[in-house]
Design a protein that fits this description.
Elements (H helix, E strand, L loop, with lengths): L1 E2 H8 L5 E3 L8 E2 L2 E2 L12 E3 L6 H10 L4 E4 L10 H15 L2 E4 L6 H14 L2 E2 L2 E2 L3 H13 L3 E5 L4 E4 L8 H9 L4 H9 L2 H7 L4 E3 L10 E8 L2 E9 L6 H41 L4 H7 L7 E9 L6 H10 L10 E5 L2 E7 L7 H12 L6 E6 L8 H16 L10 H18 L8 H12 L3 H10 L4 H8 L3 H14 L7 H14 L6
Parallel strand pairs: 4-5, 5-6, 6-7
Antiparallel strand pairs: 1-3, 2-7, 8-9, 10-11, 10-14, 12-13, 13-14, 15-17, 15-18, 16-17
Helix pairs in contact: 1-9, 2-3, 4-9, 5-9, 9-10, 13-14, 14-19, 16-17, 16-18, 16-19, 17-18
Length: 524
């Protein structure tokens, strides 16, 4: 069961577009119908119009099936009508018959389209905890009934996917876990010290966790959920003593069933992530038609901020980034404000923003994402200025440069936005140019810098402050914490070392730029 919106978002990567009844995007699809060779009158929420290339016929079939939407591969028009005419016809028929018309690219096979549609509509589910089949809750209830304890199903990052409705056999630790939708850090540390997590990662055998009144724990049994050698998650059930016999077998069998559910759910989720990522990357690289790509992403054609994020722990620079990507893409369709992609070692998110809107909304999004990650994960981020959809490649560069600023700052520093940090970014660019040797090696500033290095003088710093103070000797002296005569004497000695035409505005500007490029860090 998914919405038309999400179906269109995913199928957009296969050239499918929605026409007619745009309000139908929020409609839930619970079933799929495909006409039989001898019987076209079938029933279902989504009709696959296999067997016809006519939009008129496909819409009639859908109306007879009482379908909310129909997917059709129109035949190439032989009467000279253009693509726009076909689209207008599809929209008109959809409005007339109350059906959302999805036009597929004729180059895509029906078998490919049907495989994706059946996988999404019949196997994809959504839960309050994000991605994951709703059947997991029913499975948790069944396990709880058979075993007689409260059941919790978690993913490999200790986030709650489902739990049984029975709370009689629960305990304070379980309640806290369900409310927070993840195992608290103090409990994870306890399980780590007891070797529970290591044993779950290494074996398929159920592991008993003894009671711990100090942590609000009654006894419980845990078993790994695994696909081959890959750990997908775990199943936990409260119990006073280790399970044996039929109860132990039921727990092990339940873990196998959970694994199948998670694999199906991940296949669907990965498909949507792939489509979303490809579109976002093409927008950031400027290789896509911006209006079409934004439409396929389900976003309005408005200004956006590009957010660049890196996430890592001291001992791993990859797992945390993948976890951040999963968090950024949790939820479907209109349930998320932005769209994200992984590109290299950076997570990029397109977040709608008003042209004059401050960057605080983007910072709140970053804080929310960070809060969902383990406490050991460090997150650095950069935020672009608001950009039109055709300016997103420039927005990506701005976000990258703000990210570099944040990475060089103290841990916990507020992620910079280009609106507020363009001057620091300009100075970084100048310093990068200076490091490549692309500034003059000779001239007044170079001479003063060499003299300072050889003789321990402070001529370059004095000149920089004097220029910043626009020639005000008293103000410059106060900033340098020296007497005004000292500033005057240093300027005189500088003029003896190298020609300084301080009365020339162009030379003052050039010296200011070169001195800024020579500085080590932005002075804020």
């Amino acid at each position: 069961m998914i919405t038309v919106d999400r179906l269109v978002n995913v199928l957009g990567g296969y050239g499918v577009r929605l026409f007619g009844r745009p309000e139908a995007r929020s409609t839930w699809l619970r079933s799929v119908a495909m006409p039989e060779a001898c019987e076209h009158h079938v029933a279902g929420d989504l009709l696959l119009a296999v067997g016809t290339c006519s939009i008129d016929e496909a819409v009639r079939w859908a109306a007879a099936a009482r379908a909310e939407a129909v997917l059709v591969r129109p035949a190439p028009d032989t009467e000279g009508a253009g693509e726009a005419d076909v689209e207008r016809k599809a929209a008109a028929l959809g409005h007339r018959h109350g059906v959302a018309v999805l036009l597929a690219d004729p180059a895509v096979s029906w078998s490919q389209l049907a495989g994706v549609v059946y996988g999404l509509v019949l196997e994809s589910r959504e839960t309050a905890s994000g991605r994951g089949p709703t059947d997991l809750f029913a499975l948790a209830d069944n396990l709880a009934d058979v075993i007689g304890g409260a059941v919790t199903i978690e993913d490999r990052h200790s986030r709650v996917l489902a739990y049984s409705r029975s709370q009689q056999a629960g305990d304070p630790a379980r309640l806290e876990t369900i409310v927070a939708r993840r195992v608290p850090d103090r409990l994870r540390e306890l399980f780590r010290q007891q070797g529970v997590l290591a044993r779950l990662a290494a074996t398929d055998e159920p592991v008993f966790v003894p009671p711990d009144a100090g942590h609000g724990l009654t006894g419980r049994m845990a078993v790994a959920v695994r696909a081959g050698r890959e750990l997908l998650g775990s199943v936990w059930v409260t119990c006073e003593r280790p399970l044996t016999g039929a109860h132990r077998h039921a727990l092990a069998d339940g873990a196998l069933t959970v694994a199948l559910h998670l694999l199906r759910s991940r296949t669907s989720a990965d498909l949507e992530r792939q489509v979303e990522s490809n579109l976002v990357i093409r927008l950031l690289e400027g290789s896509a038609d911006a209006a079409t790509a934004i439409s396929r992403l389900g976003l309005a054609p408005r200004t956006m901020r590009v957010i660049a994020i890196r996430a890592y722990t001291p001992d791993d620079r990859h797992a945390a980034l993948l976890l951040a990507f999963e968090e950024a893409t949790a939820g479907f369709g209109w349930s998320r404000p932005g769209r994200s992609a992984l590109l290299g070692d950076t997570l990029y998110t397109l977040l709608p923003a008003e042209p004059a809107e401050p960057a605080e909304a983007a910072r709140r999004w970053i804080r929310t994402l960070h809060a969902e990650l383990p406490t050991r994960v460090r997150v650095t981020a950069g935020i672009s200025a608001p950009a039109e959809v055709t300016e997103l490649p420039s927005g990506r560069q701005e976000a990258d440069e703000c990210l570099a600023l944040n990475e060089s700052a103290e841990p916990g520093a507020v992620p910079p936005a280009y609106d507020d940090s363009w001057d620091d970014i300009l100075l970084r660019r100048l310093r990068a140019t200076a490091r490549t040797g692309r500034i003059p090696a000779r001239g007044p500033v170079s001479t003063l810098l060499r003299h300072d290095s050889s003789h321990g003088t402070h001529f370059a710093a004095t000149l920089r402050v004097w220029l910043e103070c626009q020639g005000d000797l008293t103000l410059a002296a106060n900033r340098l914490e020296v007497h005004p005569n000292t500033v005057r004497n240093r300027l005189r000695k500088m003029g003896e070392l190298t020609p300084l035409d301080l009365g020339d505005a162009r030379q003052r500007l050039a010296m200011t730029i070169m001195l800024a490029a020579a500085a080590d860090e932005p002075r804020r």
